[in-house]
């Protein structure tokens, strides 16, 4: 990324100072208003999650609960097998992400450094799958996993990641490998290092940021995935968070409104992704910008 | 001698190369290419999971295209309606937010974070959150409208507003995300000299935006436009969770129709035909992208050089 372009006060040529200051203030007001608008639904989710059932139906609604009902969180956790949902989602996410990172690393290395016939054509195949909507292949995949007896297990959600790791991840890591001068490899080769050793000892330590980016994107994809778990998972104790959240809608055990518990559950489901963002903010931005380069 | 040695080395390195990409070759064959072909095969058959597939010729395609399945064209209509509202609004809001964040405000990081956080909320969670926000009677949105003396619609419960409500939810959940960040990077890449030159010519901020900024980042916009349309056509989860395709099929998107036929009615052959027709639409859009955008071509040229 280049330096911010708007830093210098270019406007001095254009207009009077006061007019500019007024413009700045207006801009601040608009941006603050918009930011508040974006944050409002999340604020409302937090507030709702901390209310009593009675407070849900007060009109006009109160912005803050009378007393904070922290008990809603453990209640939401036990109302549905939330612990199991959490564990399932975490397991799928961690194993899937691990597979995606390792596998895309090897494949990207092969495409970046390998010299073999058909490399360019095969890489075009990788690129073409970037545009392929996964829904197009979902029916045969379902039938394959049915034949294998993998339905209602986590395997369909994890195993494919270990075979290739996703076209975009391959693409991104290959781009990164190609920015590393080949002279690095050649020096190691002269010292007798194998190609795997070159990857492991020389290239990988240089692409930490790219690996973290791939890991983050893969983590979010797995954590948020809805379509595939919906198709492959059935038993209540096998569900992921995205599937399990709907249980607050479809299982009104006592007919009581569950909206406060649902909002607590929504917050708990979203928390890891938001936390990841705050821990690794710059990798998010970097990864996104790299994905934009693809254009 | 030396030549034989080097050719053996080349062979070994070629084998090694194939070994590195082997996981992808297996995965591509088993989970992409194979299923693609299987799906094409199934689309010409009747198949209900039980029993063997029965050859159907073009029946499945005819059933869809000739409106024997009335939901087919309707679901396309809903889906394109969604995409054609969502994408232009999404792009222009993202671009506007990026342009505002690019003005060197104090607290830019905080603003950027506030715009970005909704994109981190899982789709299902945001669908459920907005069901609550848009509750016709006790939802916050209708309360705020009531304060403004505007009668609140029934949002997700009303066929005439449900689609727009879903567009709104998707906008909230996406405009501050990757697209905004990409636009921001694009804006920061516009050379300062161009603005200086425009300023000397007496251009105001709007003229600068229209004549400098927009042309400079148009490749980014175009790329995101086509990609955005493809992504929007795949809309599924938000309606599956928030409206279940209703009310009165108002949000019955194409993917919902596919899911319904494949995994509720187990009409796997018909659903495969639906999948292939979707693929063809995406293919046409992608080719449009290739044809109209020079940047992929540029990239391909680099590729060949290596």
Summary of the model, kept short:
The complex is a heterodimer of chains A (295) and B (306). With 295 residues, chain A is mostly helical. Helix content of chain A is 69%, strand content 0%.
What does this structure look like?
The complex is a heterodimer of chains A (295) and B (306). In chain A, 69% of the residues lie in helices and 0% in strands. Chain A contains 16 helices and no strands. Chain A has helices at residues 17-49, 53-56, 72-79, 82-113, 119-130, 138-147, 155-162, 167-178, 182-190, 195-206, 208-224, 227-232, 241-244, 247-250, 259-279, 281-293. The longest helix of chain A has 33 residues, at 17-49. Chain B folds into two domains: 2-43; 69-305, MetI-like fold (Orthogonal Bundle). Chain B is 73% helix and 3% strand. A two-stranded antiparallel sheet of chain B has the order 1-2. At the A-B interface, α1, α4, α5, α6 and α11 of A face α1, α3, α4, α5 and α6 of B.
Descriptors:
heterodimer; A: 295 residues; mainly alpha; MetI-like fold; 2 domains; globular; disordered N terminus; B: 306 residues; two-stranded antiparallel ribbon; 14 helices; disordered C terminus
CATH architecture of the largest domain in chain B: Orthogonal Bundle
* Cα Rg of chain A: 25 Å
Uncertain ranges of chain A: 1-14
CATH topology descriptor of the largest domain in chain B:
MetI-like fold
Order of helices and strands of chain B: HEEHHHHHHHHHHHHH
Beta fraction of chain A: under 5%
Element layout with pairings:
The complex is a heterodimer of chains A (295) and B (306).
Chain A: H1 17-49, H2 53-56, H3 72-79, H4 82-113, H5 119-130, H6 138-147, H7 155-162, H8 167-178, H9 182-190, H10 195-206, H11 208-224, H12 227-232, H13 241-244, H14 247-250, H15 259-279, H16 281-293
Helix pairs in contact in A: 1-15, 3-15, 4-7, 4-8, 4-11, 5-8, 9-10, 11-16
Chain B: H1 2-43, E1 45-48, E2 50-55, H2 59-65, H3 70-101, H4 108-116, H5 123-133, H6 140-147, H7 162-172, H8 178-188, H9 192-200, H10 205-233, H11 237-242, H12 254-264, H13 268-292, H14 294-305
Antiparallel strand pairs in B: 1-2
């Amino acid at each position: 990324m280049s330096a911010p372009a708007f830093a210098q006060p270019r406007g001095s040529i254009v207009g009077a100072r006061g007019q500019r200051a007024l413009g700045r203030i207006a801009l601040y007001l608009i941006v603050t208003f918009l930011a508040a608008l974006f944050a409002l639904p999340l604020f409302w989710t937090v507030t709702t999650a901390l209310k009593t059932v009675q407070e849900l139906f007060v009109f006009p609604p109160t912005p803050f609960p009378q007393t904070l009902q922290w008990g809603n969180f453990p209640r939401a956790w036990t109302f549905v097998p939330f612990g199991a949902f959490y564990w399932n989602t975490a397991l799928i996410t961690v194993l899937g992400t691990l597979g995606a990172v390792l596998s895309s690393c090897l494949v990207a290395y092969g495409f970046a450094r390998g010299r073999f016939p058909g490399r360019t054509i095969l890489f075009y195949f990788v690129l073409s799958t970037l545009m392929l909507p996964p829904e197009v292949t979902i029916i045969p995949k379902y039938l394959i996993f049915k034949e294998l007896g993998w339905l209602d297990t986590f395997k369909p959600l994890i195993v494919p990641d270990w075979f290739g790791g996703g076209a975009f991840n391959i693409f991104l890591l290959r781009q990164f490998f190609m920015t590393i001068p080949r002279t690095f490899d050649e020096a190691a080769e002269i010292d007798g290092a194998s190609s795997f050793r070159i990857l492991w000892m020389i290239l990988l330590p240089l692409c930490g940021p790219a690996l973290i980016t791939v890991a983050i994107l893969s983590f979010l994809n797995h954590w948020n995935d809805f379509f595939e778990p919906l198709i492959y998972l059935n038993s209540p104790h096998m569900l992921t968070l995205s599937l399990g959240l709907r249980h607050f809608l479809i299982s009104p055990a006592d007919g009581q409104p569950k909206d406060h518990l649902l909002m607590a559950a929504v917050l708990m489901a979203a928390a890891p992704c938001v936390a990841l963002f705050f821990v690794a903010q710059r990798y998010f931005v970097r990864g996104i910008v790299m994905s934009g380069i693809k254009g | 001698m030396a030549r034989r040695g080097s050719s053996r080395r080349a062979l070994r390195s070629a084998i090694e190369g194939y070994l590195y990409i082997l996981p992808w070759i297996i995965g591509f064959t088993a989970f992409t290419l194979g299923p693609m072909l299987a799906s094409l095969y199934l689309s010409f058959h009747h198949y209900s999971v039980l029993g063997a597939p029965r050859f159907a010729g073009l029946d499945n395609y005819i059933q869809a295209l000739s409106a024997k399945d009335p939901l087919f064209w309707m679901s396309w209509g809903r889906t394109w309606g969604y995409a054609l509202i969502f994408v232009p609004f999404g792009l222009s809001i993202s671009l506007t937010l990026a342009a505002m964040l690019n003005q060197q405000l104090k607290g830019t990081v905080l603003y950027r974070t506030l715009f970005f956080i909704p994109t981190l909320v899982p789709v299902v969670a945001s669908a459920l959150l907005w069901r609550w926000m848009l509750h016709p009677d006790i939802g916050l949105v209708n309360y705020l409208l009531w304060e403004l003396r505007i009668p609140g619609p029934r949002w997700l419960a009303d066929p005439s507003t449900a689609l727009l409500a879903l567009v709104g939810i998707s906008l909230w959940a996406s405009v501050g995300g990757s697209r905004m960040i990409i636009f921001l990077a694009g804006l920061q890449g516009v050379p300062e000299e161009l603005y200086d030159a425009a300023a000397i010519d007496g251009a105001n901020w709007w003229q600068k935006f229209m004549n400098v900024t927009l042309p400079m980042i148009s490749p980014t916009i175009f790329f995101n436009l086509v990609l955005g349309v493809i992504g929007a056509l795949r809309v599924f989860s938000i309606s599956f969770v928030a409206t279940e395709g209703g009310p009165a099929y108002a949000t019955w998107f194409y993917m919902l129709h596919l899911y319904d036929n494949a995994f509720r009615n187990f009409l796997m052959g018909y659903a495969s035909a639906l999948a292939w027709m979707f693929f063809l639409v995406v293919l046409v859009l992608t080719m449009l992208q290739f044809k109209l955008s020079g940047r992929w071509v540029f990239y391909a040229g680099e590729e060949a050089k290596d």
